[in-house]
Write a structure and sequence with these properties.
Order of helices and strands: HHHHHHHHHH
Largest sheet: none
Strand content: under 5%
Helix content: 40-55%
Number of strands: 0
Distance between the termini: 49 Å
């Protein structure tokens, strides 16, 4: 049977078999270069500002493989289930984080230390690029959709074109080299640089702002992560 004809379960099992090797190889762990894991729905084609049509849903093997790879991780204590952490005086308010309210049903996943570290890198870049807490929420939500906050390397035959990193940015579309876009700081700042070029991005719904940057085949998928992204930003700001 050709590799591309494998079932979602077959692809998911590839991840399980690869995990011990990933743990032994720090660079592979950092990039999560796991054959069988693919993009969850975003297609970052370049730092531009135009929309793409809606197509079919995420690749079944991608969903199965990522879920299997991350579903049994140790929770970090951040934004798991529906628990909330009290807001400190110097942290952004809910109104600053979600000024337009959430759109539609919300999704939520447990986070391990690696995912939290990547979220912190996104928030740090948001501060340094001047997009503030609202920009940070958009960035974290986008990465939750694109990679579940994992810094994914090239995934071989299961890769979505040449998409890599937290935001699944593409070297062929001008986002940077593979080494650059798998650097969380570089990738985050590239995303925020493109976001700042979107007119009135602060006034747009999250999914519209994210989609204008990412030009995804699934433009409404980002909205489902807004609440968890806001929780993360509020806790690590």
């Amino acid at each position: 049977m050709p590799a591309l004809a494998k079932t979602a379960q077959d692809k998911a099992e590839l991840v399980t078999r690869s995990l011990p090797d990933i743990a032994k190889n720090p660079r592979r762990k950092a990039a999560l270069s796991i054959a069988g894991v693919a993009v969850l729905g975003g297609l970052a084609v370049g730092p531009s500002a135009f929309a793409a049509p809606v197509t079919t849903g995420p690749h079944a093997g991608a969903v199965a493989a990522i879920d299997l790879a991350t579903g049994n991780t140790v929770e970090s204590g951040l934004t798991t289930a529906s628990d909330k952490v009290p807001t400190k005086a110097d942290r952004p308010s809910r109104d600053e984080l979600i000024p337009h309210g959430v759109e539609g049903a919300q999704s939520r996943i447990p986070l391990n230390d690696e995912q939290v570290s990547n979220a912190k890198a996104i928030v740090k870049a948001a501060k340094e690029t001047g997009v503030g807490e609202r920009g940070a929420v958009i960035g974290v939500a986008t990465s939750l959709q694109e990679s579940k906050l994992y810094n994914l390397g090239h995934l071989g035959t299961y890769n979505d074109h040449d998409s890599e990193g937290l935001f699944q940015q593409r070297p062929s579309s001008g986002w940077g080299t593979p080494e650059q876009i798998t650097d969380p700081d570089y990738a985050s700042k590239a995303f925020f640089g493109a976001l700042k070029n979107v007119g009135d991005w602060q006034d747009l719904p999250l999914t519209a702002a994210a989609q204008t940057v990412q030009v995804s085949a699934f433009p409404y998928a980002y909205a489902q992560w807004e609440e968890q992204a806001a929780d993360i930003v509020q806790q690590v700001w």
